Amino acid sequence: MRSLLIPLCLLVAGCGGAQTKASPPEKQPVQAAQTPAEPEKQAAAPAAQPIPKDALTPDLRTRKTGADWPAFLGPTADSVSSEKGIRAPWPAGGPRIVWHKQIGEGYAMPSISRGRLFLFDRRGNTATLHCWKSETGEPIWKFEYPTFYRDRYNYNGGPRCYPVLDGDRVYIYGVEGMLHCLRATDGKMLWKVDTRADFGIVQNFFGVGSTPVVEGDLLIAQVGGSPKGSDRIDFADVKGNGSGVVAFDKYTGKVRYQITDELASYAVPVLATIAGRRWGFVFARGGLVGFEPKSGKLDFHFPYRAKDYESVNASNPVVVGDRVFISETYGPGGALLQVKPGGPKVLWTDSDKRRGKSMQCHWMTPIHHDGYLYGCSGRHLENAELRCIEIATGKVMWTQPDLTRTSLLRVDGHFVCLAEEGTLLLLKVNPKRFEEVSRAELRVPGTNAPLLEPPCWAAPILSHGLLYVRGEGRLACLELIPEKKR
What we know:
By secondary structure, the chain is an all-beta fold.
């Protein structure tokens, strides 16, 4: 059953009425935070004010060059970094380990802004958002709330969704369905929504696992609620209630719109501008939804899911011009669509192939570069392959087996590749062949113990020259780009 897991970006026990807490972790006992009125009872919110980009002050970084990593798949939402100057090849043993820490349950990587790292995890029956100094791992504050989620497939019960940073606010979406907005400077709760109670969420295979996205003054989330009483019927027969995608006012938590009867998947909403028009794409449980993110106007629904009951969509849509690539691993495989208002045109699809499918992504979102897609294709540890395909045709350019399931980060003409067993690789971006530059089996300093224990399912992230990788129970910070001497 391990092949079912979607660690996102990767399901729900009672969370209503939970007491929330925020405190500096080492200076005083955790105190109960003031709980605001429920969103529907709140007084009218003041007019939304723009959040300054430098709202997190002071800047705690000593490394001043580079970029922050504020949300899932980074500042451009495609697992691509603009930073330059990586060391290649790596020294023996891999990149220098700057710091590492034991962490709780969960599958998500942190998000980083102005020297602050935000990690969402779980210990016991407590979900916690940690705020640490990104360059040292030193604690600044933490926010906690009770969670009683239990996974149906015996995976851990920690968060799957990444923290989302937006100016002076941070949003977290728990595996049980609690959505919180916190002040990023000190962890004070600004608002919360119990999506399970408010929208009738029936526990998904692996809980809530689609990270929300910010668009203007909206926080757009996959919710996928069902009519009242649906929790008493067989999961296979659960239907939607028009809350597949919900846009919340990011300042107050009030619902601005909700669309589609789709149930939730583990893919993250993708925002893009095509021919001067803004689009939102959600690869929901039953297929791709295209809509206008500001208004919620629905453009199309493109059915795309394996027939197996225990199948999920988890890899994000990839937008290239006016084309959208989608992929899953349980049946249909990949497809390339040309989108326009009213509906998509299928340019090619794996769904009509019995074998020889181009790209069957499990949870990794493939990375596009110069007309080619690079990603992990395959459902199981033993049959997964890293491969490159031509996006226009689906032609497979090369495959590399025996790496297990992998995740990629593209930076400075290279891919940083993390295999689920903990091996870290540096590859050249090359559509003609698999080109390995370096390989490292990272060790805990001073020991022969592996730094990263499997499963390593979250893609590496990079911020201001520092690479962050996660394995079972540990987060590590490595120096990928040496700091220039002044």
